[in-house]
Amino acid sequence: MKILESTNLQKIYGQGDTEVRALDNVSVEVEKGEFVAIVGTSGSGKSTLLHMIGGLDVPTAGEVTVDGQVLSHMTDEELTIFRRRNIGFVFQQYNLVPMLNVWENIVLPVKLDGNVPEKEYIDEIIDILGLQEKLENLPNALSGGQQQRVAIARALASKPAILLADEPTGNLDSRTSQDVLGLLKVTSKQFQQTIVMITHNEEIAQLADRILRIEDGKIVNTSNPSDHSSISEERL
Questions:
Q1: Per the structure, how many domains does the chain have?
Q2: What are the phi and psi torsion angles at 31 (to 5°)?
Q3: Which one of 41, 159, 172, 229 is CB 3.0 to 4.6 Å from 176, fit for a cystine?
C-alpha cells in the first residue's frame, strides 16, 4: 500500500540568472512500513524534499500525497492538524519542551490533539527505546542519545502515517548514532512504521530498506542495500 507520493515536485528560488532549482521534477513513492533513506551532499535538495513531503514548505509546482490526502488541497489550519495527526518529525535538534518531563514530552502531540494517550502502545515504545527509568526526568538531565530517543518516542506516539527523520544522528557520537538508528529500524519493523530519513552518511543509509540518491535537486537512482541492486531514475 502506497503511503507517500510526490509527483513532479519542484522548488525554485529566485528568477533568471539567480534561479536555483532546489527540486527539479522529483517523483517518489513510498510503501507503508518501508524504511527509506534519502542520501545526498549538502545543497543536493534532500532537506528541501523532506520539508515538502512533510508539509513544512510549499512546492513551486507538483503535489505531495500522504495517506491518500493531497497536502496542497488543505488550508493552513487543516494542514497543521493533518501534520500533527499523520506526520512525525525527528530532527537533529531534539526540540523537547524543557519544563516537561520525558513522559509529558512523549504524549504532548496526542494531548494537543485532544486525545487520551494509548498507554499500552506508548509503554511498548518506551520499552523498545529503553526509557522506562527516565520518565520523570527533565530533558536537561538526559544525554543526547536519550533525548533523541524521547524525540523518536514522541514522533511515534500519535501513530503517524509517516515518520520523517532529518539527519537524526547529526549531534550524536558514532556509537550512540548506531544505537539510535538501530532503534529506528526496530520500530519500523515492530510497528510497521513508515520512515523516511535524510542523511549525507552512506554507512547510516545502509540500514534502510531502500536508498534514494539525490543530486542537484533530482533523484538519480535508488538501490536496495540488501541486494546492492540499482534501479534507474525512470523506474522510480
A1: 1
A2: -85, 155
A3: 172
- Report d(CA 176, CA 161) in Å as an integer: 26
CATH number at residue 106: 3.40.50.300
For residue range 166-222, list pLDDT tens digits in order.
988 888 888 888 888 888 888 888 889 999 999 988 888 998 999 999 999 999 988
The per-residue DSSP string of 172-183 comes to S-HHHHHHHHHH
Answer whether residue 61 shows pLDDT above 60.
Answer: yes
Does residue 22 contact residue 45 with C-beta atoms inside 8 Å? yes
Provide CB contacts within 8 A for 113, sequence distance 6+.
81, 84, 85, 158
Residue 152 lies in a domain: yes
Per-residue pLDDT of 175-185, as tens digits, reads: 888 888 888 88
Distances (CA, A) of 109 to 19, 58, 165, 170, 196: 38, 23, 17, 24, 20
DSSP letter for each residue of 36-49: EEEE--TTSSHHHH
Cell numbers 535508488 correspond to what residue?
222
On whether the CB atoms of residues 236 and 27 are closer than 8 A, the answer is yes
The torsion angle over the Cα atoms of residues 35, 200, 216 and 48, rounded to 10 degrees, is 60
Hey, what's the cell of 2?
Answer: 502506497
Whether 172 maps to a domain, the answer reads yes
Q: What is the mean pLDDT of the chain?
A: 90
